[in-house]
Amino acid sequence: MFFKKKQIEKIDMNRLPVHIGVIMDGNGRWAKKRGLPRSAGHKAGADSLKKIVTACNKMGIKYITVYAFSTENWSRPKEEVEYLMNLLLSYLRDAENTLAGENVVIRAIGSRAELSEEIQEQIIKTEKFTANNTGIVMNIALNYGAREELTTAVKAIVEEGISVEEIDADLISSKLYTKDQPDPDLLIRTSGEIRLSNFMLWQLAYSEMYFTDKLWPDFSVKDLEAAIIEYQRRNRRFGGV
Ligand code: IPE
Ligand code: IPE
Ligand code: MG
Question: CATH code for 14-232?
Fold first, then answer.
Protein backbone atom coordinates (compact mmCIF):
# COMPACT_ATOMS: atom_id res chain seq x y z
CA MET A 1 0.00 0.00 0.00
CA PHE A 2 1.16 3.49 -0.80
CA PHE A 3 0.40 6.28 1.61
CA LYS A 4 1.02 9.88 0.69
CA LYS A 5 3.35 11.54 3.20
CA LYS A 6 1.44 13.89 5.47
CA GLN A 7 2.57 17.50 5.21
CA ILE A 8 3.72 17.65 8.84
CA GLU A 9 6.02 14.68 8.23
CA LYS A 10 7.94 16.84 5.76
CA ILE A 11 9.00 19.11 8.61
CA ASP A 12 12.42 18.44 10.11
CA MET A 13 11.65 18.77 13.82
CA ASN A 14 15.35 19.28 14.57
CA ARG A 15 15.50 22.40 12.43
CA LEU A 16 12.39 24.26 13.50
CA PRO A 17 12.49 28.04 13.58
CA VAL A 18 13.10 28.96 17.23
CA HIS A 19 11.18 32.22 16.95
CA ILE A 20 8.38 33.05 14.52
CA GLY A 21 7.07 36.58 13.97
CA VAL A 22 3.57 37.01 12.55
CA ILE A 23 1.93 40.05 10.99
CA MET A 24 -1.69 38.97 11.27
CA ASP A 25 -3.22 40.98 8.44
CA GLY A 26 -6.45 40.79 6.45
CA ASN A 27 -9.18 40.62 9.11
CA GLY A 28 -11.06 43.53 7.57
CA ARG A 29 -10.98 42.09 4.06
CA TRP A 30 -12.06 38.69 5.37
CA ALA A 31 -15.15 40.31 6.90
CA LYS A 32 -15.86 42.46 3.85
CA LYS A 33 -15.84 39.40 1.59
CA ARG A 34 -18.62 37.98 3.75
CA GLY A 35 -20.62 41.19 4.03
CA LEU A 36 -19.80 41.37 7.73
CA PRO A 37 -18.57 44.32 9.82
CA ARG A 38 -14.78 44.59 10.26
CA SER A 39 -15.23 43.66 13.92
CA ALA A 40 -16.35 40.17 12.87
CA GLY A 41 -13.04 39.80 11.06
CA HIS A 42 -11.11 40.74 14.18
CA LYS A 43 -13.11 38.23 16.21
CA ALA A 44 -12.34 35.50 13.68
CA GLY A 45 -8.69 36.60 13.71
CA ALA A 46 -8.50 36.13 17.48
CA ASP A 47 -9.78 32.55 17.09
CA SER A 48 -7.23 31.91 14.37
CA LEU A 49 -4.47 33.15 16.68
CA LYS A 50 -5.38 30.71 19.44
CA LYS A 51 -5.22 27.81 17.01
CA ILE A 52 -1.85 28.84 15.59
CA VAL A 53 -0.23 29.45 18.98
CA THR A 54 -1.44 26.09 20.25
CA ALA A 55 -0.09 24.35 17.14
CA CYS A 56 3.29 26.10 17.43
CA ASN A 57 3.53 25.11 21.08
CA LYS A 58 2.73 21.46 20.29
CA MET A 59 5.32 21.45 17.53
CA GLY A 60 8.01 22.76 19.87
CA ILE A 61 8.45 26.33 18.62
CA LYS A 62 9.94 28.34 21.50
CA TYR A 63 8.82 31.90 20.73
CA ILE A 64 6.08 33.55 18.69
CA THR A 65 5.58 37.30 18.38
CA VAL A 66 2.25 38.39 16.96
CA TYR A 67 1.42 41.88 15.74
CA ALA A 68 -1.95 42.68 17.30
CA PHE A 69 -2.07 46.49 17.30
CA SER A 70 0.45 48.91 15.87
CA THR A 71 1.32 52.42 17.03
CA GLU A 72 -0.26 53.52 13.72
CA ASN A 73 -3.54 51.64 14.24
CA TRP A 74 -4.83 54.45 16.49
CA SER A 75 -5.62 56.30 13.27
CA ARG A 76 -8.51 53.90 12.55
CA PRO A 77 -12.13 54.90 13.29
CA LYS A 78 -12.78 55.25 17.01
CA GLU A 79 -15.29 52.38 17.07
CA GLU A 80 -12.80 49.99 15.49
CA VAL A 81 -10.05 50.96 17.93
CA GLU A 82 -12.49 50.47 20.81
CA TYR A 83 -13.54 47.08 19.49
CA LEU A 84 -9.93 45.97 19.12
CA MET A 85 -9.04 47.14 22.63
CA ASN A 86 -11.99 45.26 24.12
CA LEU A 87 -11.11 42.18 22.12
CA LEU A 88 -7.51 42.32 23.34
CA LEU A 89 -8.68 42.75 26.90
CA SER A 90 -10.91 39.69 26.72
CA TYR A 91 -8.17 37.77 24.91
CA LEU A 92 -5.75 38.48 27.75
CA ARG A 93 -8.39 37.51 30.32
CA ASP A 94 -9.38 34.36 28.52
CA ALA A 95 -5.74 33.43 28.02
CA GLU A 96 -5.51 32.72 31.73
CA ASN A 97 -7.90 29.82 31.23
CA THR A 98 -7.12 28.54 27.78
CA LEU A 99 -3.56 29.39 26.77
CA ALA A 100 -2.25 29.15 30.33
CA GLY A 101 -3.68 25.63 30.40
CA GLU A 102 -1.65 24.99 27.27
CA ASN A 103 1.46 26.03 29.19
CA VAL A 104 1.95 29.24 27.15
CA VAL A 105 3.95 32.13 28.62
CA ILE A 106 2.26 35.39 27.62
CA ARG A 107 3.98 38.75 27.41
CA ALA A 108 2.93 42.06 25.94
CA ILE A 109 5.44 44.14 24.00
CA GLY A 110 4.94 47.75 23.01
CA SER A 111 4.30 51.05 24.73
CA ARG A 112 1.86 50.59 27.62
CA ALA A 113 1.32 54.18 28.73
CA GLU A 114 -1.26 54.89 26.00
CA LEU A 115 -3.35 51.81 26.87
CA SER A 116 -6.27 52.00 29.30
CA GLU A 117 -5.55 51.26 32.94
CA GLU A 118 -7.78 48.23 32.70
CA ILE A 119 -5.66 46.74 29.92
CA GLN A 120 -2.42 47.67 31.65
CA GLU A 121 -3.57 45.88 34.80
CA GLN A 122 -4.75 42.86 32.85
CA ILE A 123 -1.39 42.63 31.08
CA ILE A 124 0.42 42.54 34.42
CA LYS A 125 -2.03 39.91 35.69
CA THR A 126 -1.77 37.67 32.64
CA GLU A 127 2.02 37.96 32.53
CA LYS A 128 2.25 37.03 36.20
CA PHE A 129 -0.23 34.19 35.85
CA THR A 130 1.69 32.57 32.99
CA ALA A 131 5.25 33.49 34.00
CA ASN A 132 6.10 30.06 35.38
CA ASN A 133 4.77 28.14 32.40
CA THR A 134 7.40 26.26 30.45
CA GLY A 135 5.93 26.15 26.94
CA ILE A 136 6.09 28.62 24.09
CA VAL A 137 6.63 32.31 24.86
CA MET A 138 4.00 34.38 23.09
CA ASN A 139 4.77 38.08 22.72
CA ILE A 140 1.64 40.04 21.91
CA ALA A 141 2.72 43.22 20.15
CA LEU A 142 0.17 45.70 21.47
CA ASN A 143 0.63 49.37 20.72
CA TYR A 144 3.90 48.21 19.24
CA GLY A 145 5.96 50.07 16.67
CA ALA A 146 9.61 49.37 15.93
CA ARG A 147 10.44 53.08 15.64
CA GLU A 148 8.93 53.73 19.08
CA GLU A 149 10.86 50.75 20.44
CA LEU A 150 14.16 52.02 19.03
CA THR A 151 13.47 55.60 20.11
CA THR A 152 12.78 54.40 23.65
CA ALA A 153 15.99 52.35 23.57
CA VAL A 154 18.06 55.37 22.49
CA LYS A 155 16.53 57.49 25.26
CA ALA A 156 17.35 54.81 27.86
CA ILE A 157 20.94 54.60 26.66
CA VAL A 158 21.36 58.38 26.95
CA GLU A 159 19.57 58.59 30.31
CA GLU A 160 21.72 55.83 31.76
CA GLY A 161 24.82 57.75 30.71
CA ILE A 162 26.21 54.78 28.80
CA SER A 163 29.51 55.70 27.15
CA VAL A 164 30.05 55.62 23.39
CA GLU A 165 32.59 52.78 23.72
CA GLU A 166 30.01 50.56 25.45
CA ILE A 167 27.41 50.90 22.68
CA ASP A 168 27.24 47.96 20.29
CA ALA A 169 24.52 45.84 18.67
CA ASP A 170 24.14 43.60 21.74
CA LEU A 171 23.69 46.62 23.99
CA ILE A 172 20.97 47.97 21.71
CA SER A 173 19.23 44.57 21.58
CA SER A 174 19.25 44.51 25.37
CA LYS A 175 17.21 47.72 25.44
CA LEU A 176 14.41 46.40 23.20
CA TYR A 177 11.14 44.81 24.33
CA THR A 178 12.50 41.46 23.11
CA LYS A 179 15.65 41.52 25.26
CA ASP A 180 16.76 38.03 26.30
CA GLN A 181 14.99 36.52 23.29
CA PRO A 182 16.49 35.31 20.03
CA ASP A 183 15.59 37.24 16.86
CA PRO A 184 12.81 35.75 14.71
CA ASP A 185 14.06 33.10 12.27
CA LEU A 186 10.88 33.32 10.24
CA LEU A 187 8.46 36.16 9.59
CA ILE A 188 5.00 35.36 8.25
CA ARG A 189 2.68 38.04 6.85
CA THR A 190 -0.78 37.19 5.63
CA SER A 191 -3.17 38.98 3.25
CA GLY A 192 -0.80 39.57 0.35
CA GLU A 193 0.81 42.78 1.61
CA ILE A 194 4.58 42.74 1.11
CA ARG A 195 5.77 45.20 3.75
CA LEU A 196 6.83 45.32 7.40
CA SER A 197 4.52 48.10 8.63
CA ASN A 198 6.91 49.08 11.44
CA PHE A 199 7.22 45.54 12.86
CA MET A 200 10.49 44.46 14.55
CA LEU A 201 12.77 46.42 12.21
CA TRP A 202 15.88 45.64 14.24
CA GLN A 203 15.12 42.01 15.07
CA LEU A 204 14.19 41.00 11.50
CA ALA A 205 17.63 41.84 10.08
CA TYR A 206 18.30 38.21 9.04
CA SER A 207 14.85 36.61 9.25
CA GLU A 208 13.44 34.58 6.41
CA MET A 209 10.26 36.24 5.14
CA TYR A 210 7.17 34.35 4.08
CA PHE A 211 4.27 36.17 2.48
CA THR A 212 0.95 34.52 1.73
CA ASP A 213 -2.29 35.77 0.15
CA LYS A 214 -4.35 33.94 2.76
CA LEU A 215 -6.27 36.34 4.99
CA TRP A 216 -5.42 35.95 8.68
CA PRO A 217 -8.76 34.39 9.79
CA ASP A 218 -8.29 31.77 7.04
CA PHE A 219 -4.68 31.00 7.97
CA SER A 220 -4.72 27.40 9.14
CA VAL A 221 -2.31 25.00 10.83
CA LYS A 222 -1.71 23.54 7.34
CA ASP A 223 -0.64 27.00 6.16
CA LEU A 224 1.68 27.27 9.14
CA GLU A 225 3.24 23.93 8.25
CA ALA A 226 3.67 25.06 4.65
CA ALA A 227 5.49 28.20 5.85
CA ILE A 228 7.84 26.12 8.00
CA ILE A 229 8.55 23.71 5.14
CA GLU A 230 9.39 26.67 2.90
CA TYR A 231 11.59 28.11 5.66
CA GLN A 232 13.51 24.83 5.88
CA ARG A 233 14.15 24.93 2.12
CA ARG A 234 15.88 28.31 2.39
CA ASN A 235 19.62 28.65 2.62
CA ARG A 236 20.44 31.11 5.38
CA ARG A 237 23.86 32.62 4.81
CA PHE A 238 24.04 35.54 7.27
CA GLY A 239 26.43 37.32 4.92
CA GLY A 240 28.73 34.31 4.60
CA VAL A 241 29.22 32.01 1.60
C1 IPE B 1 -5.18 43.05 10.82
O2 IPE B 1 -6.28 43.11 9.98
C3 IPE B 1 -5.55 43.36 12.26
C4 IPE B 1 -5.09 44.66 12.73
C5 IPE B 1 -4.37 45.51 12.07
C6 IPE B 1 -5.51 45.02 14.06
P7 IPE B 1 -6.74 44.46 9.30
O8 IPE B 1 -7.76 45.11 10.17
O9 IPE B 1 -5.58 45.31 8.98
O10 IPE B 1 -7.42 43.91 7.99
P11 IPE B 1 -7.37 44.55 6.54
O12 IPE B 1 -5.93 44.78 6.22
O13 IPE B 1 -8.13 45.83 6.62
O14 IPE B 1 -8.01 43.54 5.68
C1 IPE C 1 -0.09 45.78 10.46
O2 IPE C 1 -1.23 45.73 9.70
C3 IPE C 1 -0.45 45.84 11.91
C4 IPE C 1 -1.06 44.65 12.48
C5 IPE C 1 -1.23 43.52 11.85
C6 IPE C 1 -1.48 44.77 13.85
P7 IPE C 1 -1.89 47.05 9.07
O8 IPE C 1 -3.09 46.61 8.33
O9 IPE C 1 -2.09 48.06 10.13
O10 IPE C 1 -0.74 47.56 8.10
P11 IPE C 1 -0.82 48.47 6.80
O12 IPE C 1 -1.59 49.70 7.19
O13 IPE C 1 -1.51 47.70 5.75
O14 IPE C 1 0.60 48.75 6.45
MG1 MG D 1 -4.39 45.49 7.36
Answer: 3.40.1180.10
**Angstrom distance (rounded) from CA 151 to CA 39:** 32
Q: Ligand 1: which of 191, 196, 213, 214 to mutate, judged by most atoms within 8 Å of the beta carbon?
A: 191
In tens, the pLDDT along 38-89 reads 999 999 999 999 999 999 999 999 999 999 999 999 999 999 999 999 999 9
The arithmetic mean of pLDDT across residues 138-164, rounded, is 98
Is 73's C-beta closer than 6 angstroms to any atom of ligand 1? yes
d(CA 83, CA 85): 5
Of 12, 14, 25, 103, catalytic = 25
Atom of ligand 1 nearest to the CA of 29: 14
Q: Is there an atom of ligand 1 within 6 Å of 217 CB?
A: no
- Asked if the model's pLDDT at residue 96 lies above 90, the reply is no
Distance 186 CA to ligand 1 centre (A): 21
Dist. CA 7–CA 5, nearest whole Å = 6
Residue of 48, 82, 61 whose CA lies nearest to 19: 61
DSSP state of 65: E
Q: What is the pLDDT of residue 135?
A: 98
pLDDT of residue 98: 87
> What is the three-class DSSP state of 1?
coil
The rounded radius of gyration (Å) of the Cα atoms in the chain is 18
Beta-bridge partner residues of 186: 20, 208
State the distance from the centre of ligand 3 to the C-alpha of 109, rounded, in angstroms. 19
Q: Where are the domains of the chain?
A: 14-232
In the prediction, which pLDDT does 3 show? Answer: 73
